[in-house]
Fold each of these.
Amino acid sequence: MELIMFKNINSQIVYLNELTMIRMGYIFADKMTVVSFNFNYLQALIDFDSTPEAQLVKDYMIYYKEDKKLITQEVLDLNYNALKRLRNEKGKRKESIIQHQKLERWIGLITADVYKYLNHYVTQNKERAFLGFVEDGSLKLINHEHEDTDYLAKMIQQIIDSFINNDAVHFFDEYAFEDAQDIKPEENVDELPGIVFTTNTLISIPDLSDFTYNQLRIIKNEFNELFRPLHVEINRWMKEMYDVKYDFNEKNRDDYDAFEKLLTFEKVLNDAQNQNIYFQSIRQSNPDNKFRDLRYGISSLSSAINIYRKSRIINKEEEAYILEKVGKVRDLNSLCFFLYHKLSKEKEAAKEPTESALP
């Protein structure tokens, strides 16, 4: 099972939430595609060995421009131009050979400083484990620069393709659901236009920002067998929902076997997370650790697309364009299954599972 999530410069997804969602997605899903502008340094580290030397020289000044103790742009350009000239010079004299050797050592230090900066950034921002996610094929990063004018069209096309192909589960941040209104306080039923989502939790995951890739991989492997039948069910629903119209209401809520069957998985997963030695250790050593819930919902296709607008990932005009393109291939009132993450709250004991409706 594959997840897909989007973030651009205008969206309201908090960076730390984005990191949490990636760790959560890594543990829960087989694969995850992340379209974002926040991981260019991580990608630069991944691509370091294949990055042209001239680009690394440019990157050096970007990373160290505020450090007045280091080399200036003028000296950097002067030295690098001299190095390129000496590399192409034939029949060099002794003085030129010595100068060439010095400049080769110098450029080695420059590129080493770039590598050092990228490593420090990735470690400081708790992205180190993501290197392992990319290397093992679990995480696909699609990055863009803030000033990349071509990015928006690419991102919109990616959203269109994902809804048409129906081959990945859309993974949303809690921000889009903040305006839900309580319509049945005694049942914890909430309301927003066009969506049904549950307050039930598939799994609650603590803050794992300090965990290494190997530790996260162990957790993923422990849950893998439990998630496997759930993935099969979700993949089946994704195919079945392709042509089924969304018509959820209080009268036919029992007809949505997706919710009923997911409830059967919840107890098994809750028991497993309560027995996980890493989660137990975190609860005991840090009672204030904030757990995050992985929750699920269904909606019409058009309402799922609207979640991206609520998240400020697309605007009104872009939403209309996506609806037009997707609507030429699929019924916009057909069902869409999605996942979202939310900060955990105190769970009341012996409480019946509930659902929340976003009409």
Note: Confidence is low (pLDDT under 50) at residues 181-191, 346-359.
Amino acid sequence: MKQSNFISELLNGVVNVFDTIALCKEISSCKFGYGFVARSTPNFSAPKATAGEWYEWFGECMPNIVKVTKVTNARAYDYAKAVNRQLDKQGIEATFKSSAMNGYEWVVPNIIKRATKDDSLQLCLSFKGGDKTKFETFYIVGDHFATDREMAFIKSHLYVAPNKSVKQTKMGVAQEDIIMVRNYKFSNIVSVGTTPQVEEFWQSINK
């Protein structure tokens, strides 16, 4: 398949919502070995202040850039229970409480949440550094896959969000056992399945 066809599929393709729900139910039941591929819009640090740098590289101040991520061996924990379980394991009083999930409600506990304002669905991934959950990414710039040099430039300008694990760290959770969370819009998921199926899809992309 031509590169342009892969790019079109990655930018516009959407997995059947019921297939994604079925995948999420497998993951939430603690079954291992599932994954997905999703696109997202990256956030950049000081895009206006660095507009000149972007123009030098791409001929425009801010080209359309899309991040494509492969997730394998996905996990979904009950966030608060997982943190307290780890605290208890370390001999620390298990009193961790998660923040309220304002604007969302669970459709499938711990993994599918719905935005109350527009009914859109999100896949909520939760994992520990010590898990076998793996991430791999690349970027699409306009009509082409980013070159290695473009990738380095893009990554050097990414916005780094504040560390949300400070609360866990202060309570004493070991660094490798901190629970991390990432959310993916259902409308941005382009492939789901077992880890081998996702790996096969990823390898088939002609970059």
Note: Residues 3-204 form one domain.
Amino acid sequence: MPVAIDNHCPWKTKCLALQVVSKLGPSLNSKFALEVLDLGLRDEVEEVRTEAVISMPVMVLWSVLDVPSHVFERME
């Protein structure tokens, strides 16, 4: 299902990017994921910063514990 992005609200796109990056797990370069997280934490919009903070535990679980994908499917 395609996701419609509102061009007038770039913060929504940033939030979506943080959600996607946090769920890609080990298939993503950890340096890239940390850069996206850092950008989110430093963003001027509160919603983006909040999404970055919410995404942090998921990124930690993926990187440290090597949690299988079926665990995250059950969490959703």
Note: The chain has a mean pLDDT of 77.
